[in-house]
Amino acid sequence: AGPRRVVVPTSAGAAIPAGELAARIALSAGRLTRGGVPAFTPEFVLADVALEPPRRFSEYSGDLSGRYVEALALLPPEGGADLAGLVESILGHQRADGRFGDPDLRYTADEIGGLHMAQLWGNGRLLLGLVQYHAVTGDAATLAAARKLADFLTGIRAQASKPAVVKRLLDQGAMGIICFTQLNEPLVLLAELTGERRYLDEARKIGATLGERGIQHAHGYLTTARGMVALAQATGDGALLGQVEGLYADLVASPDLLYLGGVPEFFGGDASGHRPRDEGCGVADFLRLSLMLHRATGKADYLERAEHCLLNHLCFNQFATGDFGHRLFFEQGIAPTESVGRAWWCCTMHGYRAFDDVLNSAVRVDGGSVLVDLYLDFDWKGEGLEIAARTRAMSPLESRFVVEVKEAEGEAPLGLRRPSWAESVEIATGERSPQVDEHDGYLELRRLRPGDRVEVTLRHRARLRTRDGRDLHPGELQGEVEGLLFLGPWLYVVDEEAEPLFFGEPWKDANRVLLPAELEAPAEPREASPFVEPARHVTARYVHGGFPGTHPVTLRPIGEQTGGRPGTVATWITWRKE
Fold first, then answer.
1. Which of 535, 539, 498, 537 is nearest to 517 (CA)?
2. Rounded Cα–Cα distance for residues 20 and 181 (Å)
3. Which of 66, 286, 518, 578 gives 126 a disulfide partner, CB atoms 3.0 to 4.6 angstroms apart?
4. Is the pTM of this model over 0.85?
């Protein structure tokens, strides 16, 4: 049986996924609802609130169960989990004071430590799951339980935010102060659903405890930042929004932004004391924060960074099983971890959750125009317009985006983004030519009619990004240059599954890839799959550091590794003109 269809709630502005996007969503949806190891059975999901059977990270009470409820409430697979029964069982484990998990932890300034932070983290994620479930279903019992939990969490705010407590918990990783500050996100949503401003006030006070980025856990830090954006939008606080923009700018200017487009598991590099690996949760968070900031400000840079993170980092982080998790970085690229890295306890759900934000960001309505922001496969309806959008890879240096107009009522123009990664954007509209204007980085089509077919040809910009941050066109290559190869928005790599002999010792700092003058797909490409597009591959040759001659090698977008097993991936490559 193939992946099941995902039924996306008909929220305003949501796109319906198709093509590769639908396949990625269905892959992770199937992982959460159709078995696997470990299987997400009701008993397994409930373990962090029932505290039995023993399961890893149950001290983060509500973390897995809350994420599971949130993700599947927003993106419910057809015939998927019985969320109503699951939520009813979760509510049965709520303690008298409103919390979930260990009832004996006392929240006094002198006692608050790592286990308290773990409980706060899990309870915060569960609060978000309950609130999102209520938003979708309107279930009164769930809202009552969410209020009771929120009252417990805000009731300990005065003790948890004392300077001595904050200082003690800084730089404590996944049991640090970010477990407390992330409570701002669900409190803002609860305030919007109930109209109770007191939750906004508490969210502001809790979020203000965040402090500097330092060497904190990226997932909690970025979750708190998302809560700050939500609070700024709910209250119209431009200063708070500006504060988050400042935090974001500082992050992207630092080594904590990885070249794949996301972030490491822990900020601070070598100072963190943690291995240089990513985490699907943090990658999803950076993607979602970037999309939120684009929505809030309209600034194109946020959208460009979100797209880069989605196509390269989030897609690469998704495993063939549908899980998300960890990838280990080293000097020349990414290596498999000895523990495989599929983080079923958090990333598998949080990576899946990010797709909802992608679907709500593919198209937006602004100033009476329908704007296509992401060149993905989807269907969309709104503002009297119904379209089906599909992408086609024509070659490594060219893509085609086809929009079929199903309905067109009213005068809303359709705007197609001109991305920075495109050398040129050309529009063909068949025999009848709708009016095309360029406005604020979008090509706008007016007077569309049902049956119109719009073909957008995007010619990809080719560039080599060097270690010192310079961008070179391949034609400017002189001698040998170590760098990352980008064709359009995609990072091109050599991966072990497709090219095992490339990685024979000695290859690091020894192999040279001969970049051809004409970047063309192989004459006999690998078989296509939902995650592999042969027309996008590049055929080249390389010189190995251990044996003579030149040998064929295929360069592929890094996101294609979802379809295979985890292996070594060369990203930083030494290039030479062919």
1. 539
2. 36
3. 66
4. yes
